[in-house]
Amino acid sequence: MPRFAANLTMMFNEVPFLDRFDAAAKAGFTAVEFLFPYDHPAEEVGKRLKGAGLTQALFNLPPGDWNAGEKGFAALPDRFADLQASLNTALPYAQATGVKRVHLMAGIADRSDAKAVAAFRKSVAYAAEFFAPHGLDVVIEPINPRNVPGYFLNDFIFARDVINELGIPNLKLQFDIYHCQIIHGDVTVRLREMMPIIGHIQIASIPSRNEPDGEELNYPFLFNELDRLGYGGFVGCEYNPRGKTSDGLAWFKPYAGAKS
Fold first, then answer.
1. pLDDT by residue (tens digit) across 181-209?
2. DSSP E strands: which ranges in 141-253?
3. SS3 call for 37
């Protein structure tokens, strides 16, 4: 049975961020993820997480000025110092939450630019090696160009090749099914092919990015496929609820309480 992690950036927005941990636990989730925790002290985030009896599945490394449109530094040749600083910013949050994987964002850059490709490979390797002594995996995630135009990492094949070529044990793929369906389609076959390098999975309906209970994909089939493939990681619920979060959790009821 898949282990689902509520995304507290997108779900349970009916209450303030720090109160969403308890809300997720009361809804039956045993794990959570979120985009960025950096507006709150690391100790308080860890306290709320542990107080709710939850496991932290994932969070993103600092992306730069998100409100100004920045989406990370990894592929930006002139921002390597910012990339290095971001890892030190994130480390106390990893330690406070006990998370085992963090997402490194690539940034807005042209993938046909050789300097951007070289910068990305350098940054990915540096981040993975930085976090390895702390027992953390680094995951990279292809993001579709409809949601984030100009995002450097917009192809699962390219991401797979970088991971395989670098060969760093704690470097993994973040396989967002929503993004994969929009970019490539053929999700099931790609899951089967890439499962050995997958470190985290995320879900949402396509094309609306709502609850995974309809539209293009048959999620119950995909959840069974994850079990068949022996996936033991978390499945992050990175979707926008249509209304109140708790009103849209009928899809989740068969899986509520799955142990982390």
1. 999 999 999 999 999 999 999 999 999 99
2. 171-176, 198-203, 234-237
3. coil
Within 93-152, strands assigned E span: 101-103, 137-140
Q: What is the dihedral of CA 33, 110, 184, 147, to 10 degrees?
A: 50
Active site (catalytic) residues? 141, 238
pTM of the model: 0.96
Among residues 114, 112, 34, 36, the alpha carbon closest in space to that of 70 is found at 36
pLDDT tier, 255 (very low <50, low <70, confident <90, very high otherwise) = confident
Token look-up 């994909």 returns 217
For residue 159, give the amino acid letter.
Answer: A
C-alpha closest to that of 123 among 62, 69, 178: 62
Angle subtended at Cα 106 by Cα 100 and Cα 111, rounded to the nearest 5 degrees: 140
203: its two tokens:
């879900």
